[in-house]
Specification:
This protein folds into three domains: 357 residues, 4-Layer Sandwich (Anthranilate synthase), CATH 3.60.120; 72 residues, D-amino Acid Aminotransferase, Chain A, domain 1 (2-Layer Sandwich), CATH 3.30.470; 122 residues, D-amino Acid Aminotransferase, Chain A, domain 2 (Alpha-Beta Barrel), CATH 3.20.10. Helix content is 27%, strand content 32%. The chain is built from 13 helices and 31 strands. The strands form four sheets. Strands 3, 4, 5, 10, 11, 12, 13, 14, 16 and 17 form a ten-stranded antiparallel β-sheet that branches. Strands 1, 2, 6, 7, 8, 9, 15, 18 and 19 form a nine-stranded antiparallel β-sheet that branches. Helix 3 packs across helix 8.
């Protein structure tokens, strides 16, 4: 049984990746009160100097143990937990075999209205000169089916590389796949690598490069990063040899599966006789998850956040024999207690932040957990009409792009063989053909008789914002459709629901795209509003029948006509029913 697993990326080109398994610890050191935190941290360092491996975590709420001015919620015990080991297990990953699949379901989380209010409060504090920025976070609850170890492996597949750790204390499990290095301390050199500044990965190589360039050039995102670099330089000076603090790299980009992140390297040479407790006293919590100035930012976010952060935003890491230590900042981190899960998400609020942009960032940052929570397949739905494919090349291209995005195996030749065989079997009539592709490249093709398309349909406007409008499961077509199913019409006279995002912008329907006649011109929402790039939509854009334009909710009374669009049914004239109809 694995009680702990560390899989930390190489800190620099000259260091190896640290990948080690640990059985049950020989000793456990833990702090259950603030008064015990510093003695326990000192004891952990002593064990490491004596030749032991020490693997554990420090909760965010331990911060007042080093500085009573750092305000937090009261923390769950233990505030500090470390397992002490003589040596790692002699295991390779394949020795563990294949773990059964775990599944997780997640609650709705913080309402957008409350999120918007918190952003406003922090920006008022910035305008008053109290802070420069603050990192606002919230916890998302969930339920786990299966083992925490299995779910950790799925999370790590979804968010590879980085500084991953699995720790089982018996009472809870920490599943961290954090990409952020808190610090690496080796032979007196103390390196911090704050991560601040985020952009969504693009769906094509061209859009991905554009997203990266936009992040690199963004004054807002660079300012976020530089503010925290300045804070960490100041923190490092508390344990550093005079004039040894330096910025080794500033605002470089790091590619993660769902987002681009901006990172910087700040290092120093520590003074003699510094211990782990001294390093934490200087640096903890990491400035990237607090804000600046740290004391005031932590006070404000304590008042605004509903609950404690716990391990999230604390530190998870390992001390090696001899005292060298590496810790992550446990973002992209889930904790499990029995079947209950907690997932923290946050972002930096600055003077020019907008609630909608920060809300989108939260969705992008949670994507790693949503990907891993349940198995899914990529999906394309094609029309086979009298033995002829409609828009086949466009569907294949979209499937290829989605496979590349999610890291699924894909063979175009195999798909063509499946489609040709099905085409030969159905030379007449009209069929709805579902193409499913799983992560391992297996393709399943199914044909179903196509019902007659109605000449006109009724649509109804959703009664609340589509919170998942900016999810990758909206931008790509998959079998994960719970965010659409929640809006499926229950009235048999309503064909589909018109969705809108948190900015009050129309996005799409649950089964197709939407068009609106405004000022005698047919328009459809642009992709940045949060919708699927439909094949039928692309066809009508290319034909010039529609153009892209943002459609706000307050535009709805002026819409002269509506259209429902997808590649399966083409264009269907539609009427938007009133809420009371």
């Amino acid at each position: 049984m694995v009680h702990a697993f560390i899989d930390f990326a190489a800190v620099d080109c000259g260091s190896p990746r640290l990948r080690t398994f640990f059985a049950a610890p020989k000793e456990i050191l833990q702090a259950r009160s603030l008064a015990e935190v510093r003695p326990v941290m000192q004891a952990v360092h002593e064990r490491s100097l004596a030749g032991k491996w020490c693997v554990g975590f420090v909760r965010y709420e331990a911060a007042p143990a080093w500085d009573s001015a750092l305000q937090t919620h009261s923390g769950t015990q233990p505030l500090v937990w470390f397992g002490i080991h003589d040596s790692p297990l002699d295991l390779a990953p394949h020795d563990l075999g294949v773990s059964p699949t775990a599944q997780a379901t997640w609650e709705q989380g913080l309402p957008y209205a409350e999120f918007t209010q918190a952003v406003g409060n922090l920006q008022n504090a910035i305008a008053d000169g109290a802070i420069y920025q603050a990192n606002f976070t919230a916890q998302l609850g969930g339920t786990l089916q299966g083992s925490a170890w299995s779910f950790f492996q799925q999370l790590q597949h979804s968010q590879p590389q980085g500084f991953a750790a699995f720790i089982d204390t018996g009472d809870e499990q920490v599943l961290s796949v954090s990409p952020e290095l808190f610090f690496d301390w080796h032979q007196g050199r103390l390196l911090c690598r704050p991560m601040k500044g985020t952009a969504l990965r693009g769906s094509t190589p061209q859009s991905d490069a554009a997203q990266a360039q936009a992040l690199q050039n963004s004054p807002k995102e660079r300012a976020e990063n530089v503010m925290i670099v300045d804070l960490i330089r100041n923190d490092l000076s508390k344990v550093a040899v005079s004039h040894s603090v330096q910025v080794d790299a500033l605002c470089r980009l790091q590619a993660l599966p769902t987002v681009w992140q901006m990172v910087s390297d700040v290092s120093a040479q520590t003074r003699v006789n510094m211990g782990l407790d001294d390093v934490f006293a200087a640096l903890f919590p990491c400035g990237s998850v607090t804000g600046a100035p740290k004391v005031k930012a932590m006070s404000l976010i304590r008042d605004l956040e509903r609950s404690e952060r716990g391990v999230y935003c604390g530190a998870v890491g390992v001390l090696r024999p001899g005292g060298s230590a590496t810790f992550n900042v446990p973002i992209r981190t889930v904790t499990a207690q029995g079947h209950a899960l907690q997932l923290g998400t946050g972002s930096a609020i600055t003077a020019d932040a907008t609630p909608s942009a920060e809300w989108r960032e939260w969705q992008h940052k949670r994507a790693f957990a949503l990907r891993a929570s349940q198995p899914f397949e990529l999906l394309e739905t094609l029309r086979l009409d009298q033995g002829q494919w409609q828009h086949k090349l466009a569907h294949v291209a979209r499937l290829r792009a989605s496979a590349q995005h999610f890291g699924f195996a894909f063979c175009a030749h195999t798909l063509e063989q499946h489609l040709a065989a099905l085409q030969a079997q159905h030379p007449q009539a009209v069929y709805r053909v579902r193409v499913l592709l799983n992560a391992f490249g297996h393709i399943d093709v199914q044909a179903h008789a196509m019902p007659t398309t109605p000449a006109q349909v009724n649509l109804r406007l959703a009664d609340q914002a589509h919170a998942m409008a900016f999810s990758e499961f909206t931008r790509h077509k998959t079998t994960r459709r719970e965010h659409y199913d929640a809006f499926s019409p229950t009235d048999p006279d309503v064909f589909d629901t018109v969705l809108w995002n948190c900015d009050g912008e129309i996005t799409e329907c649950t089964r197709g795209n939407v068009a609106a006649l405004l000022n005698d011109q047919w328009v459809t929402p642009p992709l940045h509003c949060g919708l699927l790039a439909g094949v039928g939509r692309a066809h009508w854009l290319a034909q010039g029948r529609i153009t892209e334009r943002v459609i706000h909710l307050n535009d709805v009374p002026r819409v002269q006509a509506w259209g429902f669009i997808n590649s399966l049914r083409g264009w269907i004239d539609a009427e938007l029913l009133s809420a009371n109809a």
